[in-house]
Amino acid sequence: MLTAIGDVMRECYKRGWITTRDGNCSLRFDGENKIYITPSGVRKKLIHPEFIESLVIRDGKLHLQADENPSGELERDLKLWVRK
Q: 55 and 21 in contact (C-beta within 8 Å)?
């Protein structure tokens, strides 16, 4: 599924829906305590699975590590993926 994120971002770029650094994609698998999201500042047409940020959710809150650099649209995406 993480490979599909790169595929979707490349297709969006190819169709002119986003610029090379615009847009983001995120997902959360049912039952998992992680959100997968594209990183900030990375060319979306070059996204590969190893670039995807894997963010941990505990107690209904996101816990970021110092080396994580998720999309600037993370706050909006959290409203979709973290239910209180």
A: no
